[in-house]
Amino acid sequence: MLKSVDIEKLLFIDIETAPEVYNYNDLSSVLQQLWQKKVKHFIAKQSAEEVYKNRAGIYAEFAQIICISFGFLVFNQATEAYEMRIKSISNRDEKVLLQEFSEMIIKSFSSIHRFSFCGHNIKEFDIPFICRRLIINQLVIPDVLDFSGLKPWEINHIDTLDLWKFGDRKNFSSLSLIAHKLNIPTPKDDIDGSDVARVFYEDDDLDRIIKYCSKDVITVARLLMRLKGIDLIKDENVIYVE
C-alpha cells in the first residue's frame, strides 16, 4: 500500500486549539447569540454554556491555535533506520505563532510540489483551521496552503483518516483507536484533546500541550509507516528541534 508515497517528502503536522475565551459568559452578547445559532442543533439537549465548554475549541470562529507541531523522516544510512525530527511552534499570541509558522513554511517548503502535508483529519480540520485563523488575524495564506481553484486530485496532501476510510465516507476513526488496533505504540500517556483548554487556561501549562501535540505527529508517522509496511520509527530515533 502507498508504494508511490515517498515518506521523506512528507511534513507530518498536528495542531492544538483552545477557545479564544475560556468561558461562554465571557463572550460578548453578539458572540453569544452567534454561538447559539452556530450550534443550535446541539442546544436542544444541552445548554449553550455546556456546548461551548465541550465544542468551542473545534470552531475557528471561536477558537485559536496554541501549538503547531510538525516533523519529517530521514533515513539514516549508518543505522539503516528512519529518524524523525520534530519542531513545535507555540505562543499565547496566536498572530505571532502563525507568522512564525508561515515564515518557516515559505522559507523551507515554498513549492506545493516539493512536499506534502500529512496528518490525521488534516483536510477537514487542521489545514482549514490554520487558513481561517490566518485570515482572521489578517495574515496571508502561504501558497502551499492555498487550495483555491485547485481540483481535488491536484491537492497532494495525505490524510491518514482518508486512507483508513478506504472510500467509506461515513466512517470516522480517531488516531488513537486506529493506532491501538494496529498495535502502533502511542506515546500519549498524559492528557487528551478534551483536556487542552483546561490545561491552557487553568493550569497555564503550555509546555504540557506542546508535548501532547508532538506525540500526535509521531503517531501519525508511525501509522503511515504501518500502512506502507515498513518498520516503525523508534522512540530513540525521535529528535526534538528547538
- Fraction of residues in helices? 25-40%
Number of helices: 9
Rounded radius of gyration (Å): 18 Å
Major sheet characteristics: 6 strands, mixed
Strand residue percentage: 15-25%
Strand order of the largest sheet: 5-4-1-2-3-6
- Helical/strand content category: alpha/beta
Mean pLDDT: 91
What does this 3D model show about the protein?
With 242 residues, the chain is an alpha/beta fold. It contains 9 helices and 6 strands. It has a 6-stranded mixed sheet with strand order 5-4-1-2-3-6. A hairpin with a 4-residue loop joins strand 2 (63-76) and strand 3 (81-90). The two termini are 34 Å apart.
Highlighted features:
single chain; 6-stranded mixed beta sheet; 242 residues; alpha/beta
Summarize the structure in short.
This protein is of the alpha/beta class and about 240 residues long. It is about 40% helix and about 20% strand. It has a 6-stranded mixed sheet with strand order 5-4-1-2-3-6.
Topology, please?
Layout lengths: L9 E10 L9 H10 L1 H4 L4 H8 L7 E14 L4 E10 L3 H15 L7 E4 L2 H15 L21 E2 H6 L9 H7 L14 H6 L4 H23 L9 E4 L1
Parallel strand pairs: 1-4, 3-6, 4-5
Antiparallel strand pairs: 1-2, 2-3
Helix pairs in contact: 7-9
